[in-house]
Amino acid sequence: MKANExxxxxxxxxxxxxxxxxxxxxxxxxxxxxxxxRTSGREGAAMRRSFWTIPLSLLGLGLLATTVGxxxxxxxxxVLQAPGSPQKAVxxxxxxxxxxxxxxxxxxxxxxxxxxxxxxxxxxxxxxDRAKSIQHSADQADGKATPxxxxxxxxxxxxxxxxxxxxxxxxxMNFAGSAHDRRDVxxxxxxSVHSFKSATGQLKTVxxxxxxxxxxxxxRAKMNRNSHHPVREGKLECASCHNPHxxxxxxxxxxxxxxxxxxxxxxxxxxxxxWEHAPVRENCSNCHDAHGSNHDKLLVAKSPFLCQRCHxxxxxxxxxxxxxxxLAGATVPSPGVPTVSSRSIEHACKNCHQTVHGSNHPSGPYxxx
Length: 369
What we know:
Elements: H1 2-22, E1 26-30, E2 35-39, H2 41-73, E3 79-81, E4 89-91, H3 99-104, H4 106-112, H5 130-141, H6 156-164, H7 179-182, H8 208-213, H9 217-223, H10 258-263, E5 275-276, H11 278-282, E6 358-359
């Protein structure tokens, strides 16, 4: 009897499972222990997953919103570790107070206030490293002798990059690749932000020519010769002809060539001429030394020796005017009685060829008129 009941119960359970497979949403199972309901099939599994997925998704969205809100309220915490003090970190976005610098660097700041640099938004950290400045100020308050963020300790390229961050137009736009840049001459080699002496340009010296002479002593020596441009007298400066920031032109000149630079003052030599002097047309420095000479008119050699460098043995006798054929004469009629050649007395090339720079006279092919 019991076996039949068990068999009947098992048959009923199997029948219920069969119905459940036919109706996979909810199946009703009847056993000897009682009556109960059970979900089964794909839809039932999906319902169970959805029942747990929805609360978890809502919980995840809540946590994400909390994290985003906290990140929006919190300031940026880009932390830079100062060298030598690993226990103390400096926050990059920490507000900077320039009054901390004035406490110890009053003379430098006082000179700075006379320039446009004083109006920069970032104040001292516009040029000096921000993190090192804050660390230096904090360590000084704690009695630590931490070196300051001096610009002089940087490489020439780093100093130039700092200055050209603002000074990137005008004369400075072609500084990269110039002769000064290639020789690691930085901005602070000539300029001083805190202790300048010039009226303009914030130079280290009163005059810009003195700045140039510190690296070009050979030019200073030429400027002290008899014939020179009025640089010593203060009427001209090196920057009158040269642009120390521009490397796009030869010799860092202000004009495109040597001749164009000379023509800015000597316009009467520009031409064009009907009869031109080829060396003059080519380059003024063929005959003149712009920095100074012991010969008249800044000439590189005395006339007629200067002319005979090119005009030798042409037309009239081109022998050199030396002591053998001028002062003592070419021939001596009697021993101990020298004769004086006519070449030694006011006879030079310019006595006949006056317009050596060029002539517009129809009868002046030899630059005589």
